[in-house]
Amino acid sequence: MSRPRPGRGYRYGRWRGGPDPLAPPYDLGSAVDEIGDSVLGGSGVREALRELLRRGMDGRRGLDELRRSVRERLRQARTAGRMDGTLQEVRELLDRALEAERRALFPDPDDAARLAEAELDALPQDTAGAVRALKDYPFRSPEAREAYDRIQDLLRREVLDSSFANMKQALENATEQDMQAVKDMVADLSRLVDAHNRGEDTDEQFREFMDEHGQFFPDDPQSVEELIDSLARRAAAQERMMAGLSPEQRAELADLMAQTMSDMGLASEMAHLQDALRQARPDLPWGQRGQVPDGEQSLGLGDATSAVAELADLEALSNQLSQGYAGASLADVDEELLEQALGREAVDDLAALRQMERELERQGYLNRSDGKLELSPKAVRRLGATALRRVFAKLDAAGRGEHDVADAGAAGELTGSSREWQFGDEQPLDVVRTVRNAVLRTAGAPHADRDRKVSIAVEDFEVVETERRTGAAVALLVDLSYSMALRGTWGAAKSTAMALHSLVTTRFPQDAIQIIGFSSTAQVLKPETLAELSVDTLQGTNLQHGLMLARRFLARHRDAEPVVLVVTDGEPTAHLEEDGTPYFCWPPMPETIAKTVAEVERVARSGATLNVFALDPEPSLVHFVHDITARAGGRVFTPDSDRLGEYVVADYLRTRRGRRAR
C-alpha cells in the first residue's frame, strides 16, 4: 500500500488486510447496461435495480430463483407431519398401561382388585386427566408401570425439547443429577435474560453461563443476543404450534405440559422465562396462528415445535427475498437462515448481488440521498449514449446514418478571417493557416531539416469564420400523461429524449437543449430526473404550458436557431387558468384548444420550427397537430413507437442541415 507524502514522493509498507489493492475493478458494465435497458424501457431507477437483483447475472442466481427454491423448501416443510404426535403416543402408552393393569386384576378374586378396576373405569375421559389421576395409582402389573413411567419420561423430554432444541436426546435415560442440572440451567438462564432486559452488561455473566451449561446448547451461541434470539424464536414457535391444534388437542396437551412442568418443579421458572423472552423480543409473532405442518407422520412436541419454527423461518426468508415491502434492502436477508435452507452456495449468490449493489454506488453509477436511489450523471451519460447508439443503428440500417451532417463545414458567407479551432466547431478548416502553424511550431525544433515531415498538432488547427449562427436551441416537449403508459409509448419517449440530449450535448455542444415534460402541468426535466421519471397519473395533456416553458428557454438563446419538437399521443385536454391553476376537461374545451393555439402562434412568431411526432393515429389528434404545424411552418410525423427515436434524431439532424443550406 502507498500514500502520498508532500514533497517526498510515496511511502510503501506491508499490506495488512482489507480489499486486495491489486485486484481488478469490479466489472459493472453489463449491470449498468441492464439497468439502462429497464430505465430506457420506461422503468424508474429503483424498479430497474430491483428487477436486476431479481433476475441475477453472471451465472449467479437472482432473488426470484432463490425465493422459488425457498418456497419449494417451504412446501416440503409443510408436509413434515402432524403436530399431535406426543398426544397420540401418550394415548397409546396409556391404553397399553390400562390394558396390562386390567389383565393383571381380572384373575384376582379379591375385593381390592374389583375396587381397583372400578377406579380405572372412573378415570377421566381426557388423556391429561387420566394421566394425572394415575400419578399415585399402585400398579400391580410391571408392564403397566413401565408404560406409565415411559409416559412420564416422554413428557419430560418432549416438554423440555419444545423449549430447548435437542433436549429430548440429551435427557434420554436421565438421572436425578441430570434433571437437577436442567433446573439449575433454567434458573441461571432466567437471571441472565432478566439482567439483559434491565440493560446490564451481561458479557461476563454470559460466558460463565455457557461454561456451566453449554452442553444444553449445541448450536453454540456466541453472545447473549444470539442465545436469547434462538430461545425466543423457539418459544414463539411453541405458541404457534399450540395455536395450530384443535381446541380439544390444545387443552389436553397444555394440561399435560403444565402437570409435567409442575412435577419437575419448573412450572414457575419456565413461566417466568417465557415472559422474559417475550419482553426481550416483543417483535416476534407471539400467540399468533401461523403456518403449521400437516403430513402423515406424527411429530413429537419438540419436533413439531422445530417444524413450526422452520416454517416461520422459511416464510420470513421468503418475504425477505421478495423485497416487496417498504424500505426493503438486501441487508434484510438473513444469511444464516438462507444457508440453513439452501446451503452455502445460496449465500454466495446473495453476496454477489450485494457486492454488485455496493459497487454501483461506490463506482459512482448510483447515488442514494434521503433513502432515494438515483442515477448519477455518469450513469445518465452512459444511458444517453446507449439510447443514441441504438437510434443510429436503426438509422444506419435504413441507410440514413450520420452522413446527414457530412457537409457541416459548408455554412454561411466567409468573413475572410480565421480563428483557433475549438471543440464542437463545425466551420471548415483553414488548411493553409493550419499547415503554416505546424511548420512554424516545428521550425525551431532540434535536428529540423527540409526533408523532415511536418506533424500537425491539435493547437495548430484553425477554422474559417462564417457569418451564420452556428448554434441551435432545441426544446423537446414530451407527453407525460397516463395514456402514454397505457399505450406502451412512454418507454420510447423517455429513450428518445435521452438519446437526443446525448446527441446535442456530446456531438453538437454549441447547441442548447431543454427537455420539458407535460401532463396536467409542465416541468423542465434534467436528464437525471428524466431517467427516474414515470408517467404522471394525473389527468391532462397541457401542451399550452409546455410551449410557454419552451418560449422562455428559446428567449434565453436569441442568437441560436430555435427548434421545438413535440412528442404526444393526444390532443390538449388541459390549460392554465388566469391564476395559474391547471384546468382539465375531456372532451377538450374550446378554451383549451384556443389557449394552446395562441401559444403555438407565439412560438411561431419567435421564428422557431415546430415539428410534432403524433403517436396515436386518432383523427382528432391528427387534425389538430396538422393545424398547429401549418401555423408554425412545421411538419407532422406519425411513427410507430419503436421508431420514434429514429424519427426525432433524424429530424433534428435534417433541420440542422437545412439551416446550413440557407
UniProtKB/TrEMBL annotation:
Residues 1-21 are annotated as: Disordered. It comes from the Bacteria. Residues 471-653 form the VWFA domain. Residues 1-14 have a biased composition (Basic residues). CDD domains: vWFA. Gene3D superfamilies: von Willebrand factor, type A domain. This is Uncharacterized protein, contains von Willebrand factor type A (VWA) domain. It comes from Geodermatophilus amargosae.
